Recover the amino acids of this structure.
């Protein structure tokens, strides 16, 4: 996927303004090679500094993943909704159990399509993001009202994936426009 310049989004967009940055940035999500659950990731910024950790739960019906800050403090749990017509994920805030956001799959032939909904922390208004992906290009675009706010890409053949079966995904995020801890697989 070609790198594009993303327009800034103002006010900041997300459920936790502490994770918004003042410039366009790229985050890289790398799956940990030797993980019992198979779903342990480290999310780093362009400088290689860890931003967020994600640990999968080995035995979980809801395919739960725990997201933590760099000190290991819990931020939220991402879960698969078990009874839903379309694939649905939701995030529960650590400590309160409050639903922070929901991501629902939508029917689409040949492409992946999801809708993420949440209440924006900076405006207290509901937000809907559309995620459209292409299986052949291994990329996705995240839009809000038709404006691109983030772009996701994944290498087709990298040694990490070929040898260890581990994924590496990048997400480019517009200035002050998206939270670092919302990087997701297309």
């Amino acid at each position: 996927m070609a790198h594009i310049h993303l327009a800034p989004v103002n006010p900041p967009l997300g459920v936790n303004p502490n994770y918004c940055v003042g410039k366009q940035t790229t985050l890289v999500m790398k799956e940990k090679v030797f993980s019992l659950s198979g779903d342990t990731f480290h999310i780093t910024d362009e400088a290689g500094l860890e931003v967020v950790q994600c640990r999968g739960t080995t035995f979980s019906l809801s395919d739960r993943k725990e997201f933590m800050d760099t000190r290991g403090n819990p931020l939220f749990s991402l879960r698969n909704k078990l009874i839903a017509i379309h694939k649905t994920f939701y995030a529960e805030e650590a400590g309160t159990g409050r639903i922070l956001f929901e991501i629902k799959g939508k029917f689409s032939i040949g492409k992946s399509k999801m809708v993420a909904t949440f209440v924006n922390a900076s405006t207290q208004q509901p937000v809907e993001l559309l995620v459209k992906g292409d299986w052949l290009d291994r990329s996705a675009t995240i839009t809000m009202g038709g404006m691109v706010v983030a772009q996701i890409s994944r290498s087709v053949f990298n040694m990490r994936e070929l040898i260890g079966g581990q994924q590496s995904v990048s997400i480019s995020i517009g200035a002050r426009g998206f939270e670092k801890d919302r990087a997701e697989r297309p």
